[in-house]
Amino acid sequence: EAGVGGFYQNKKTFFSFFFILVCDPADVISTVEFNQTGEFLATGDKGGRVVIFQREPQGEYNVYSTFQSHEPEFDYLKSLEIEERINKIRWLPLHNPAHFLLATNDKTIKLWKVSERDKRAEGYNLRDEEGRLKDLSTVTTLQVPVLRPMDLLVEASPRRVFANAHAYHINSISVNSDCETYLSADDLRINLWNLNITDRSFNIVDLKPENMEDLSEVITVAEFHPHHCHLLAFSSSTGTTRLCDMRASALCDQHAKLFEEAADPSHRSFFSEIVSSVSDVKFSHSGRYLLTRDYLTVKVWDLNMENKPVETYQVHDYLRTKLCSLYESDCIFDKFECAWNGTDSVIMTGAYNNYFRMFDRASLRDVTLEASREVCKRRAVLQPRRVCVGKKQKETDVSVDSLDFRKKILHTAWHPKENIIAIAASNNLYIFQDRLTPNGHHNTPEIQSAPPKWQTQPNPPTY
Amino acid sequence: MEYKVEAHRIMSISLGKIYNSRVQRGGIKLHKNLLVSLVLRSARQVYLSDYYSGACLNAAQSEREWDITDTEREKFPPSTTECDRVESSEEPQKNERPEKEREYRENDDEVKSDQADCTSTLQQEQNQNSSQDSVAKVSSETLQETINEPKESPSDSALAELDSTPEANGESHQPPKTHVCSNRKRSAEESESGDSPQKKTKVASSNAKEGEEAEEMDTSNVSNLITIFGSSFSGLLSKDGAKPESEAEDSGQICCDQMLKNLNPWSTAIVAF
């Protein structure tokens, strides 16, 4: 089983981890995203701030840059306050000393350039070191300014602002594999942008009915295919996921594929529609599968089969009998994200009580882990958790009734190549790292100069 | 009957959520409100199906019979109808929450009494236009109403009175209750008259704490939410065009329930009388 789901090689240990806690009680983390190499991890929060972490050579992530991306705004025409909360961050795959990312709130997308400066020019002729104009009478010779090293300064500057294109709340952005365009999706529409053009965008999906009374579904998430620049997927509140081909027509209201599973009639309740609403969609790295998350399950879909998923995993089925109280508390509207690992062999998603779940697709085994300060000690190995519906079978079991529904893990991210995961629990960020080698035969020493690498890739990307 | 209680509770919760969503920061969340409206409709369907399968013996009455019944009822002082009595006896005593259910029923009766004014006025206005189906539904709902006073003579001015004066029903009301009543009637009117966008805007602004909303999205959202009370997000309901009217009254009744629950016990007692 070399190269597949490393953390199941040793049944006793799952992840030993480093953790970083970012404590800012005012700001709940609202999005987490690794860049394409995994060297950087960006988080956005409810206060409109972006915090970028960089991976140190030793393997730890430390704060690299912090900046205020969005501010609260007021729309005078509609008498609406526009929240500054960062809904999504997506990195651009540019190969440039600088790093670029897109950050969006409900209405406006911004392209940020994050660059380092470690040199400074000194010796200007007309200005002194503080920038004040020199008295020209004191200048007797000309000098060429020289670059001198300075303390590393990381600067973030907004390079583009893509505004006024969405009448409804933006829920997703996704960069195309062509690296030239990206999409932004709100409740009813998806727009296609060119990264260099801010004053116009093309509408490619429009679900708005002529009569708003006829509204029956909204767009929840949209994403571009990782390799095919003409394909995009979007999910809806009705539990369907559509694949659209932009080559077919300018307006992709007609889907190329519709992924929908027939509802189980035995599960019918007042809340069936809410529970089936898809809260996240992720293409696999290979581009062959789709991962969808609804309130109680995660499903893996083969792009070639529309009528049912190839795999369904129960995240917290014990909540099925509690839907009414979850509706009352608004918890049933929580939008959980999901993630693939780098080899598409493991799926991860969050749950309540600061639990998050992982599913190994090959062995069909799953684990529940907890991200909380009480449990997470430096370099300690996470112990699996179990939620029991009835009587406790083990001491470590947790009863359903004692779950804390205010502690929810909505945002998770998996390093694109390694077994490093970022978990956002309210205003705290946890980063966990696996210390096992892929084949599990040797326990690596705790401190290592370089993280373990996969030896084989079971699912090479297809083009 | 437990289902009815549960459905009623879910409807109240849903209405509360829709109501609160308007004052939330960041504007109305379309996705959440859509989902809440679906729950509201499901719960209402269960509530009504329970209702109809209960003791409503006159559900199949024709329009003419309904008129006669209504006229007869006008003559009689507050007293429970046959339906009321039948339903009371059918209510199982071993209900989980007997007190609460009694409160619901009391509220139902109170609401229906006010509703009687509205609906009778409506009824006479829409005599010629209503289909048999919608009238049948209206009649079924109003069968349980308790009339607490002689009705005013129906006229267009009565509608206006209801809007402006709380004494329309002959006694002092909490403004929200009359407010809701008039909105329901207006929305029912509108659904009958074809739902022009301007009227929708009016309904939205009269019911909401917000001011006039000029922008398309919020107007359509809010008025959409209001017209849920009049006509749901279509596509899943039957295409019966007359449904909106009856739903308006259903939802109006539910709306009244909601508002009534928010009133303090004393005013509730006054209203009941």
From TrEMBL, chain A:
<comment type="subunit">
    <text>PP2A consists of a common heterodimeric core enzyme, composed of a 36 kDa catalytic subunit (subunit C) and a 65 kDa constant regulatory subunit (PR65 or subunit A), that associates with a variety of regulatory subunits.</text>
</comment>
<dbReference type="GO" id="GO:0019888">
    <property type="term" value="F:protein phosphatase regulator activity"/>
</dbReference>
<comment type="similarity">
    <text>Belongs to the phosphatase 2A regulatory subunit B family.</text>
</comment>
<keyword id="KW-0853">WD repeat</keyword>
<dbReference type="InterPro" id="IPR000009">
    <property type="entry name" value="PP2A_PR55"/>
</dbReference>
<dbReference type="InterPro" id="IPR001680">
    <property type="entry name" value="WD40_rpt"/>
</dbReference>
<dbReference type="InterPro" id="IPR015943">
    <property type="entry name" value="WD40/YVTN_repeat-like_dom_sf"/>
</dbReference>
<dbReference type="GO" id="GO:0000159">
    <property type="term" value="C:protein phosphatase type 2A complex"/>
</dbReference>
<dbReference type="InterPro" id="IPR036322">
    <property type="entry name" value="WD40_repeat_dom_sf"/>
</dbReference>
<feature type="region of interest" description="Disordered">
    <location>
        <begin position="440"/>
        <end position="463"/>
    </location>
</feature>
<keyword id="KW-0677">Repeat</keyword>
<dbReference type="InterPro" id="IPR018067">
    <property type="entry name" value="PP2A_PR55_CS"/>
</dbReference>
<protein>
    <recommendedName>
        <fullName>Serine/threonine-protein phosphatase 2A 55 kDa regulatory subunit B</fullName>
    </recommendedName>
</protein>
TrEMBL record, chain B:
<feature type="compositionally biased region" description="Low complexity">
    <location>
        <begin position="123"/>
        <end position="132"/>
    </location>
</feature>
<feature type="compositionally biased region" description="Polar residues">
    <location>
        <begin position="133"/>
        <end position="147"/>
    </location>
</feature>
<dbReference type="InterPro" id="IPR008653">
    <property type="entry name" value="IER"/>
</dbReference>
<feature type="compositionally biased region" description="Basic and acidic residues">
    <location>
        <begin position="68"/>
        <end position="115"/>
    </location>
</feature>
<feature type="region of interest" description="Disordered">
    <location>
        <begin position="68"/>
        <end position="222"/>
    </location>
</feature>
<comment type="similarity">
    <text>Belongs to the IER family.</text>
</comment>
<dbReference type="Pfam" id="PF05760">
    <property type="entry name" value="IER"/>
</dbReference>
<protein>
    <submittedName>
        <fullName>Immediate early response gene 5 protein-like</fullName>
    </submittedName>
</protein>
